[in-house]
Specification:
Length: 277
């Protein structure tokens, strides 16, 4: 939500980057490995066959393992939603939103060594959002479609309506977009997750939460994606473009399946204490 102060900035940057990559032909950053087949990819290290049982299988550190999916705690949801509502109120008054808070998740990943570094570990700030519940998401998409050309104040009220109702959101997931990875350019985050899907998402704020997750990447043309994943891909792209302006292409959705949550606040009771489960 922060970037929409200049809604064309991210689109312009993406367009320039894609053109330069196409011209240079040197944008595949992991020498000898390209996860793309044609214009798309399918993530090789995730198995969602037990997802209905609350289990996600993933190949982490070279070994297939089962992880129990957990839920974000009450404190996290209260902080996240109240912060978003505060930012929206400020934007309506013409105020610049803070860079700290629930939108700017710092995503740490590892495992996919790039050819321009001796370290596989990487950290990138990603616009991070809440995920609508399966039974709510189609109606929320419809609302975004029907108000797509509405003035900004009306759009802000639409989003406030979403965030005022905690029951709209699925506590087992967070989401983002992998905006810049294409067949010609694989970001370090993308390379890491395709090699090892375990990530840590940290939020700069007080309280400061860290969500450790198994990240599922879904390409817009991935026919193996479930209906729920396709809905989520559509929703996250739409909620991004709702203020930024329509992107030249649909982006890869990042689904952070919640496995552990820590309270990293400097206050007593925080300091890196695991709070979920």
């Amino acid at each position: 939500m922060k970037e929409y102060i200049n809604p064309l900035l991210s689109v312009l940057f993406l367009t320039v980057m894609l053109l330069s990559c196409s011209e240079s032909g040197r944008c595949v950053e992991k020498e000898g490995i390209n996860y793309w087949k044609g214009n798309m990819f399918i993530q090789p290290n995730i198995d969602i066959s037990k997802y209905g049982d609350g289990i996600i299988r993933a190949r982490v550190d070279g070994k297939w393992q089962e992880f129990k999916i957990r839920e974000l705690l009450d404190g996290f949801m209260k902080w996240n939603l109240s912060s978003r509502l505060k930012d929206l109120e400020g934007i309506k008054k013409g105020e610049m939103p803070d860079f700290a808070g629930p939108h700017s998740g710092m995503v740490a990943s590892y495992g996919g060594m790039r050819k321009d570094t001796e370290f596989s570990i990487n950290n990138a700030v990603k616009g991070t959002g809440l995920v609508p519940k399966k039974e709510k998401i189609k109606d929320m998409i419809k609302t975004l479609e029907e108000t797509w050309d509405a003035p900004i104040p009306e759009k802000i009220d639409i989003l406030k309506g979403f965030y005022e109702d905690e029951n709209m959101f699925d506590r087992t997931k967070l989401s983002s977009l992998e905006l810049y990875s294409t067949k010609d350019f694989q970001t370090h985050t993308f390379l890491n997750i395709m090699a090892n899907p375990a990530v840590s998402v940290v939020f700069l704020d007080i309280p400061s939460y860290e969500v450790r997750a198994i990240c599922r990447l879904v390409h817009p043309e991935d026919e193996t994606a479930t209906e729920e994943e396709r809905d989520l891909l559509r929703y996250v792209n739409m909620i991004h473009d709702y203020f930024h302006g329509e992107s030249p292409r649909k982006s890869i959705v990042m689904i952070f399946n919640v496995i552990q949550v820590f309270d990293n606040s400097p206050r007593a009771g925080g300091r890196g204490v695991r709070v979920v489960p």
